[in-house]
Amino acid sequence: MHYLLSYQLADDYLVRRAEFRSSHLALAWHAVEQGELILGGAVGQPVESALLLFNVDDIAKVEAFAKADPYVIQGLVTSYRILPWHTVAGESAATPVR
What we know:
Blueprint: E1 2-9, H1 13-33, E2 37-43, E3 49-55, H2 59-68, H3 70-73, E4 77-85
Antiparallel strand pairs: 1-3, 1-4, 2-3
């Protein structure tokens, strides 16, 4: 199942990000290596939010990622949502429909 982890970012996110970026990216790349995180990154110009796409069998894995993320712990993320994404089209669709 695909899940989108949507982050709302603090107003000072860009100013404070550098201090926590390496540990945030280490967590993200570990999730990639585990086959759980497909894509992740900031959204907007200027940056207004962030999205991370997971492919996991349990939403709890996405919740655990968010709770362990230094950006969340340190308040760079003001809130987050985990949204099930019922993908039906594309090479990586979880439930392809033609």
